[in-house]
């Protein structure tokens, strides 16, 4: 690693892509101090000699990255932020699936008249697709686009995922049977289905939920600790022929840029933004009317905090801790769920901190508090993911059904029904005593 990061061309390439961004330096399995930046090519070599194993950069671009700190308000972040790039992170154990997902995402971008996009190998299992901020319109619905982070990225990534799903499913099944895909991904065939049909995103993850303020991704030309391979930009025309072995440090040249803004056409992504927000508006309105209002109409929001004894088995299982994988998704569920249980933010933070410390490898403090603070600032009324969202409860191995589970669609409603039933029993007992 020291030899690799001592290369002048590698130093220049990593410095170039880190301009105006927060930089996170990985030292083996832990991050160094944050915030940090790179100012000179030699910084890469110096950090390499000090034990740096990889370099990570923010999706957001900042006026002053070094002034960032935990707990900043949305207003403070918006004032500092210059812009952001759309980064779509594809992660899966199914390598052919990763490449085909990237292929169809690129086709979707071209369909929406976007020609300035980049793709790179993550260095291990996945691929990153990037679209520069300069391609997006200055405003969306009267709001500065730079201030729409991270919500706009989540909407666009979710829209693209929905846009390509059917094409991707058909293409994957042309090459491999559902039984073969299940074997590759160490899942059961039933886990790969939704409503009886193959659902490609049960085995291929596109990061939409975990996009957040100060989110970092592996810098182009950085090494990956686990594989020893380079996070390498790829010519899109050569994507389907790309093999991981091509990313060995001894094989690479640094002549291709990721997020190259030299050929950007202003407003090129306007059509994508308009259609993504229109899709989200229809979907969100439909969801609110058909699920949230329907399920909550007879159940009042708790006026006092509900006790853990009312929680469904999936949430109790998460709260036991000792989790190895899926902790970020579990954190997302817990924040949403506990808020709907009437818990104060102090109670949520204390319980989540206790849960995090009980895990085999706790989440970083900055990440955990960043997610909690984001939820505080946005005060969203959205509940935890529905029970049939396989990316959560089933994939995390925490779905242990009770009879009541078959009657509800969301863990939140399980606890409210349980609490309401308990109150009826208490009242009846008091009246007959």
Keywords:
single chain; 433 residues; alpha+beta; DNA primase, PRIM domain; 2 domains; four-stranded antiparallel beta sheet; 13 helices; 14 strands; disordered C terminus
Structure, described:
This protein is of the alpha+beta class. The chain has two domains: about 60-275, DNA primase, PRIM domain; about 300-430, no CATH class. Helix content is about 40%, strand content about 10%. It has helices at about 1-5, 10-15, 40-50, 75-80, 95-110, 150-175, 180-185, 270-295, 315-320, 325-340, 345-360, 365-380, 410-430, and strands spanning about 25, 30, 55-60, 60, 80-85, 85-90, 120, 125-130, 140, 145, 195, 195-200, 205, 215-220. Strands 2-1-3-14 form a four-stranded antiparallel sheet, with no helix packed on it. Strands 7-8-6-13 form a four-stranded antiparallel sheet. A two-stranded antiparallel ribbon has the order 4-5. Strand 1 (about 25) and strand 2 (about 30) form a beta hairpin. Helix 2 packs across helix 3 and helix 11 runs antiparallel to helix 12. The longest helix is centred in the middle third of the chain and has 27 residues, at about 270-295. It is globular.
